[in-house]
Amino acid sequence: MPSRVLILGGTGEARALALLSMNEGHDVITSLAGRTSGPLLPAGRVRFGGFGGPEGLAQFVREESIDVIADATHPFAAQISAHGYAAAQSCHIRYVRLERPAWRAQAGDAWTSVKDTGEAATIIPPNTRVLLTIGRKAISPFVARHDLSGVIRMIEPPERQPPARWKLILARPPFTAEQEKALMRAHDISVLVTKNAGGAQMASKLQAARELRVTVIMIERPQKPPAETAATPEELLNIIEA
Ligand code: NAP
């Protein structure tokens, strides 16, 4: 029986899920926050922008006769996941999640796990050269420390230009481990700050850090609502169809 599936998107996995679900005959709408310019679009119908909180999302679910919310958002997008869960509860429909596994430290890694960017910024030793790869929203606790410098890499430009002691690089992954090593060497980086996003595409910076003995400050994932969760689009589709 085909379902009407609302995919909360913004990731490569969400695009893969949209294509797979459509190929299996389901009726799919993907929702994107609409923050990035020229986003990669999934197959099928796409809507853009916030819903106006959990009530707005619940209203959309009712208007579109959605059967299941498939949350395929980024592991750090905690608010939209909480809203998806709440909307599903209030509309008495299923909320399921597609979540890529978190990275785990391997032999040779020097990682310190922290709960958020604020904690990450406080534990960096004085006068350190840092590579920040945490997106554009959370750089302020780092640039507020006058003894830190280095490279800030993100996809879209930040709202405010960082101070001159930071080099801003706008670039979209993937990057090879060789490219990551060259970047770390060229800028004399000794600490990498990253979010535990998971996924193969972004893991090359961790390999580079391991090989160059760069310390990693790993910001761990926020808690998401309880749900049937799959690591791949295929597994999630099995859950949806069960
Ligand atoms: P967030 O903090 O969880 O959500 C903030 C608000 O943005 C939500 O309350 C919602 O507004 C709106 N929103 C977020 N995702 C949406 C979606 N897929 N469809 C419609 N509205 C959405 O999210 P975020 O961390 O800013 O991330 C925004 C988007 O970028 C997500 O779709 C996520 O998958 C993607 N992304 C995030 C990261 C990251 O590191 N956070 C990285 C890569 C991609 P309303 O309350 O008005 O509905």
Structure description:
- The protein is α/β, with parallel strands linked by helices and 242 residues long.
- It has two domains: 4-101 and 223-241, NAD(P)-binding Rossmann-like Domain (Rossmann fold, 3-Layer(aba) Sandwich), CATH 3.40.50; 111-219, Rossmann fold.
- 31% of the residues lie in helices and 24% in strands.
- The chain contains eight helices and twelve strands.
- It has a six-stranded parallel β-sheet with strand order 3-2-1-4-5-12, with helices on both faces.
- Helix 5 links the parallel strand 7 (129-133) and strand 8 (149-154).
- It is elongated, with a radius of gyration of 19 Å.
- The site of NADP nicotinamide-adenine-dinucleotide phosphate has 23 residues, from strand 2, helix 2 and helix 3.
Could you outline the blueprint of secondary structure elements for this entry?
Layout: E1 4-8, H1 12-23, E2 27-32, E3 45-48, H2 53-63, E4 68-71, H3 78-91, E5 94-98, E6 111-114, H4 117-123, E7 129-133, H5 140-143, E8 149-154, E9 166-170, H6 177-186, E10 191-195, H7 204-212, E11 215-219, E12 228-230, H8 233-241
Bound molecules: NADP nicotinamide-adenine-dinucleotide phosphate.
The site of NADP nicotinamide-adenine-dinucleotide phosphate has 23 residues, from β2, α2 and α3.
